[in-house]
Amino acid sequence: MIPNTYTYGAPGLCLQYVDDAFNIYSNRSYSAKVAADKAGRAGTMHYNDQFPVGIKAPVYWNLVSKDDGINYGHIAIWDGQGGFYWEGNNSSLPNYFTRDEMQQIMNGTRPVNGHYLTENWYTPVLIGWSTSLEGTVIAE
């Protein structure tokens, strides 16, 4: 399944952006962490950073709020070639980051949408990538 990465995205609504990009409108999870757990239970989660070549796939991180300690998780779309699509800043133009830029964002050394991720979140930890999203197979 090829996602429409030029889908409207609002900051903080990463899972909605990815679900919409892949045209997933049922069985939606309330957080990226819940969606990651769902992929894990389905046996479609790959708990590594060996992202597939030539295949767009959801990639998940543990992302814990400094305010309430809840792991809401984060999700972005791997482009199959070395980069990630991330929800836009209230637009249909997504953010696009190389793998190195994504690492900088996750380490809190590069801003996204005008803020550093680590201002409000503990440093994210990669969970992995999946061939399903919200229970729907999106890649073989």
Q: Keywords for this structure?
A:
single chain, alpha+beta, 140 residues, 6-stranded antiparallel β-sheet, two-stranded antiparallel sheet
Structure description:
The chain is an alpha+beta fold. Helices cover 19% and strands 22% of the residues. The chain has three helices and eight strands, in the order H-H-E-E-E-E-E-H-E-E-E. The strands form two sheets. It has a six-stranded antiparallel sheet with strand order 1-6-2-3-4-5, sandwiched between helices. Strands 7-8 form a two-stranded antiparallel sheet. Strand 3 (74-78) and strand 4 form a beta hairpin. It is globular and about 35 Å long. This is Activator of murein hydrolases AmiA and AmiB (EnvC). One of its GO terms (molecular function) is hydrolase activity. Keywords: Hydrolase.
